[in-house]
Write a structure and sequence with these properties.
The complex is a heterodimer of chains A (about 270) and B (about 180).
Chain A (H helix, E strand, L loop, with lengths): L2 H7 L1 H7 L4 H12 L2 H21 L6 H88 L4 E5 L11 E6 L4 E5 L10 E9 L4 E7 L5 E3 L2 E5 L6 E8 L11 E6 L6
Antiparallel strand pairs in A: 1-2, 2-3, 3-7, 4-5, 4-8, 6-7, 8-9
Helix pairs in contact in A: 2-4
Chain B lengths: L4 H8 L3 H23 L2 H17 L11 H17 L2 H6 L8 H7 L9 H10 L2 H12 L4 H8 L3 H20 L5
Classes of the chains: A alpha+beta (about 270), B mainly alpha (about 180).
Chain lengths: ~270, ~180
């Protein structure tokens, strides 16, 4: 069929309406595809039908398009579900990273605390060790003193109170005349008043000569109430007086608290 | 009107903007077809909506080399509308409306302020002979095959085709102007 024959046959109108059998429509489609005139004719027929249908249509609400867009958007949102799951993966990744960093900080903190604890414990240990050493030294010292006092080289010299000055006072001296060493046990002396200090004197009897041995102070204290003196002139007796701070050249006899003589050695 | 193949291909690739433009170009005509079948504005809008969703979802089943896009969407719209008229709810609400055709709708409706060529189309319709009205109604609005239409109108196939073409001649004048016959 020629182009004109096809046009005049009225087939193109039915082609546009979709009223032709499929085989006939396909055959016609090939003719149309190869002919500008037929294409033009088809476009005119289509425009005519569209114009007619548009005039039949009542006013169309704009809401319809919104509904369509919404409906196809839902379909889209199913597709975009994949990307949102990717987002979830990313979020999970970040959360894990943050958790790991938090964990790391927590562990560092724990480590610091443990190190601090170890340091404190070490310090306490050192302190305890020092206390122990101190106690051991004190024990050794006490044992040494005890051994000294018990030995035959030491004489016990009681120093009774001077009733006129301090009737309650009492002291003892342990004296080694060979080596000129004396321990003074002054535990039962009343505490020295403020600004005053006890001074120990080595006494020679004929004639009575007091020689200062030293003060009952921290320097000479082995332990509270026990004092050790060395390098003093030979003594035949001991006396303790209360003197102004720093001690005196000669004893203040009005403040003589205790006095005792060394018993003569057994022949 | 030249077929907007670029827009159609873009829509087939999932471009919503292209789909939006195609809706603007064809929705009113498709709505007219649907309304002529269901004869109810609310139902027609619902069917139009369903039809365009089908067009979007099945866009890849259309092949540019095998037919007109308008013909393809026309078939979807008519089938969706006919399915609707077969539903129980529709049958219960609509009765004895089958005698209404596109001319009745056009003459009763107030469409002078919207569609293009409204006055021309109205004049064209007013002059249409009853046979032409029946032929256009069956082939274009109702989607009858040429064979079914010929049987329904009791005329030979060749006669149906040529008469249909002659019936539309005046419409071509209205749409394209007097130089395009």
């Amino acid at each position: 069929m020629t182009e004109v024959e096809i046009i005049e046959s009225g087939k193109l109108e039915l082609y546009v309406c979709g009223a032709l059998p499929e085989s006939e429509a396909l055959e016609l489609q090939q003719s149309i595809a190869s002919s500008m005139a037929l294409q033009k004719e088809v476009e005119i027929i289509e425009a005519s039908y569209i114009s007619l249908a548009e005039n039949v249509a009542p006013p169309l609400s704009a809401v319809v398009w919104t509904y369509i867009l919404d409906a196809i958007g839902k379909v889209k949102s199913i597709d975009s579900g994949t990307s949102s799951s990717t987002n979830w993966a990313a979020i999970t990744g970040w959360a894990a990273a943050i958790a790991a960093i938090c964990g790391l900080f927590w562990m560092l903190n724990q480590n610091n605390e443990l190190e601090r604890d170890v340091q404190i414990t070490t310090t306490e240990n050192t302190e305890l060790q020092e206390t122990l050493t101190d106690a051991e030294e004190r024990q050794l010292l006490t044992e040494g003193i005890l051994a000294d006092i018990r030995s035959d080289n030491f004489k016990t010299v009681p120093l009774p109170a001077n009733p006129a000055v301090a009737p309650e006072a009492f002291a003892k001296a342990y004296y080694n005349s060979d080596d000129n060493i004396a321990y003074i046990d002054a535990a039962k002396l009343p505490p020295a008043p403020k600004g005053k200090v006890y001074q120990v004197w080595a006494l020679k009897m004929q004639p009575l000569t007091p020689n200062s041995m030293g003060l009952l102070e921290d320097l000479t204290a082995l332990k509270p109430g026990l004092y050790k003196f060395e390098n003093f002139p030979e003594a035949e007796g001991f006396g303790i007086t209360l003197e102004p701070e720093g001690g005196s050249e000669s004893p203040t006899l009005t403040q003589l608290y205790v006095l005792g003589t060394v018993a003569p050695s057994a022949p | 009107m030249e077929q907007p193949n670029e827009l159609i291909i873009s829509m087939q690739k999932g471009d919503e903007r292209a789909f939006s433009k195609l809706y603007t170009m064809y929705s009113e005509a498709i709505y007219g077809i649907i309304y002529s079948i269901v004869l109810d504005e609310a139902i027609a809008e619902e069917v139009l909506q369903d039809a365009f969703i089908k067009i979007w979802n099945n866009s890849n089943s259309y092949d540019i080399t095998k037919g007109r896009f308008f013909t393809w969407i026309l078939n979807i719209a008519r089938n969706t509308a006919i399915d609707k008229t077969r539903s129980k709810s529709y049958k219960n609400s609509k009765k004895n409306l089958s005698t209404t055709n596109f001319v009745d709708i056009l003459q009763s409706g107030d469409n002078l302020n919207k569609a293009t060529n409204a006055i021309g189309v109205r004049k064209f319709v007013e002059k249409l002979k009853p046979t032409c009205i029946k032929i256009i109604e069956l082939l274009f609005f109702k989607g009858f095959t040429q064979k079914d239409a010929a049987e329904n109108l009791e005329m030979p196939l060749g006669t149906l085709k040529t008469r249909n073409r002659n019936c539309l001649k005046d419409l071509r004048l209205v749409v394209l102007g007097p130089q395009q016959i």
